[in-house]
Structure formats: C-alpha cells, structure tokens
Write a sequence for this structure.
C-alpha cells in the first residue's frame, strides 16, 4: 500500500478517502460537496495534494480540473485495514475478531447472511487457509 497507513490519516483525510473510494474518482468540488461541514475549496484542494504526496491518491487532468483516484484498489485497502485492525485490537487473532463481530451483529444478520458466512468459512477450510 502507500507509505502512510490509512489508519494514520487525519479524520478529514479519511473522510476524503472514503468519498473517493465510494465514487471511484472525484474532483475537488465533488469532494467538498460530499464532506460534512466542508472546509473551503482551497482547503480541500490542499488536503487532496497532501493525500497525493502521502501516496494515497493520484490525479489526472480533465480540461481545467484535476480528478483524483485512489492509488490502491478498495479491496486491497480493505484487506490492509482489516489486518491492522485484527493485529491492533484482537491480538492478531481473526477468530477473536470474528467472534466480536458476530456478537455485535448477531441480531442484525439475516439467515442468508449467516449462511453465506458459513459458506465462506467452509471454503476457507477446503482451501487450507
């Protein structure tokens, strides 16, 4: 991934990354519009430049504007964030993390979702993960 882990970004930088991951790509105005309690246009532009310097974003020019996109695919960023989360809060144990997730979400998971989770566990077992 990039030099600065996603978890080490400021709250505003994470908000911007979330916006860009959700849309796939965005210009300064789109990011500013999507931010809660948005800062000025120039402040958003500066934050995007900082995220680019940190290696999280890249840009391309479209006419007069820059359009930013993540340097790491969302799936890769998610996996990296999950590994850090498990290592930091669950002593590196995926079992502890899954147990906490299930305790927290048990009432919210549908039968279909529980069946899909069981299927994923069985698939991991067959593949020797």
């Amino acid at each position: 991934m990039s030099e600065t882990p996603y978890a080490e970004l400021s709250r505003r930088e994470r908000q911007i990354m979330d916006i860009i991951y959700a849309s796939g790509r965005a210009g300064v105005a789109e990011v500013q519009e999507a931010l809660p309690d948005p800062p000025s246009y120039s402040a958003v532009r500066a934050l995007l430049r900082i995220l680019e310097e940190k290696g999280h974003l890249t840009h391309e020019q479209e006419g007069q504007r820059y359009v930013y996109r993540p340097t790491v695919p969302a799936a890769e960023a998610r996996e990296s964030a999950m590994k850090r989360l498990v290592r930091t809060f669950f002593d590196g144990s995926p079992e502890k993390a899954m147990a906490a997730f299930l305790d927290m979400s048990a009432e919210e998971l549908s039968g279909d979702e529980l069946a899909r989770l069981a299927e994923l566990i069985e698939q991991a077992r067959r593949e020797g993960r």
Summary: The longest strand covers residues 57-62. The domain at 6-70 is CATH 1.10.10.10 (Arc Repressor Mutant, subunit A). Residues 74-89 form the longest helix (16 residues). The beta strands are 26-27, 57-62, 65-70.
